[in-house]
Amino acid sequence: MECEFYDMPLFRGCDRTLVDPILEKSPSRIANYRKGEFIAMQNSVCRSLLLLCEGSVRVQMTNEEGREFTLDTLAAPDVLASAFLFATENTFPVSVIANTECRLWIVSRESLLALIESDTAVLRNFLSILSDHSRFLTSRVQQFALQTLSSRLIGYLEKNPAVQNLQETAFILGVTRPSL
């Protein structure tokens, strides 16, 4: 199954006559990952935009002692690494791990720049994606810096009424399983 580029949030409302020629010349590629495989490693250089076409991933941080924290779980279609690609220090501060079988479209930084320059809809979509990710991260910082474990748990349960896996929930809340 081919990745449906125009179903991706980055390309919603774009002018295909402007975007298609760039996509045809782009050195982008499709990559498949099995459940549990690392798509990106924490502290590795981010050279490409990752577009999640199929599957689900988790975004996870690990500290020096090996303690893990799941920042988010994302499902296709979604854009990964948008905030890191053009950063002064363009490394992944997190690892991206396949939760299920995944298919990604990997787009080079140069190709993304050409797409942004060619169509203002792609530019607007990219800025919207960056802003949404920034807003999400701000809410996560607030959640951990300003809330108690019980208030974080209540907030989590309001958004996710059925807890499937206690260990995963503990990772998401940044606590040990026994603390829950």
Explain this structure to me?
The longest helix is centred in the C-terminal third of the chain and has 27 residues, at 120-146. With 180 residues, this protein is α+β, with helices and mostly antiparallel strands. The protein has 2 domains: 5-133, Jelly Rolls; 147-180, no CATH class. The chain is elongated and about 55 Å long. The protein contains 5 helices and 8 strands. Helices cover 37% and strands 24% of the residues. Helix 1 (16-25) runs antiparallel to helix 2 and helix 2 crosses helix 3 (120-146). The termini are far apart. Strands 1-8-3-6 form a 4-stranded antiparallel beta sheet. Strands 2-7-4-5 form a 4-stranded antiparallel beta sheet. It holds the Pfam family cNMP_binding. One of its GO terms (molecular function) is DNA-binding transcription factor activity. This is Crp family transcriptional regulator. Residues 10-133 form the Cyclic nucleotide-binding domain.
Structural class: alpha+beta
What is the end-to-end distance?
41 Å
The strands making up the biggest β-sheet line up spatially as: 1-8-3-6
Average pLDDT value?
88
Query: Can you tell me the overall shape?
Result: elongated
